[in-house]
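Supplementary notes for students who missed Thursday's class. We covered one full example, reproduced here. Read the sequence, then the structure, then the short commentary at the end.
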Amino acid sequence: MTLPVETTNRDGVLRICINRHEKRNALSMATLDAIAAAFDGAASDEDLRLAVLTGAGEKSFAAGGDLKELASVKGEEAAIRMATHAKAALATVRNFPLPVVAALNGDALGGGAELAMACDMRIAASHARIGFIQGKLGITSAWGGGVDLMRLIGPARALQMMTRIEVLAPADARAMGLYNAVADAGMSLEDALEAFIAPMRGQSPHVMRSFKAMALHLRQNNREEMDRLETRNFGVAWAHPDHDRAVERLLNKTRAT
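Structure (token representation):
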């Protein structure tokens, strides 16, 4: 049986890999739970310095929610339950007591972009794009990523990304402040990642925890109200006929190709 997540812990670095490349690393609830469990299980390891979250393959870091699973979510209340469940999983990543680096092996779209934003830093392969494309389905962000995006790049640029359904190329994402580093053309993501985290490896674990604690305090300040607003708006959007029509258009397009 293939596990949805593979975890290693070596030389002070926790590595968590979403292992559903045949599904473009789609984020089912079971996959999100496995990610949360991996972070939870390592939180008290006093030898850790940082964590790296990545995906299998080269096409997708995470393509978003699992469409087959999401098809069973009907109505506003069910949508809110689903969003709350997923939001709790991403909060585990966000609240991890050490810095978390997302290593984007491929595109981070929709819910995948939200997962990337839950991390503290993002390193991207030379082809790895990022986009909050939820508007294509007539819905909003749901898992806390909209809040993270607004706080990182400001409401004006975040609104630009979400309302224009922009999928940013790596250079544009770095210029906007979403990516901390991008692999050069011909450079592997692993080499780019290792170059980025090399200085972190020499830090004392307790110092890394202190750095993260300060960042997390600022990141979480007055967050609850924004999270509630995001979840409530998502539930309304999910139950709106516009969402059903958008899903049907997408399915028709998929059937025609």
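Commentary. The mean pLDDT is 94. Residues 18 and 62 are 8 Å apart (CA to CA). If anything here is unclear, bring it to office hours.
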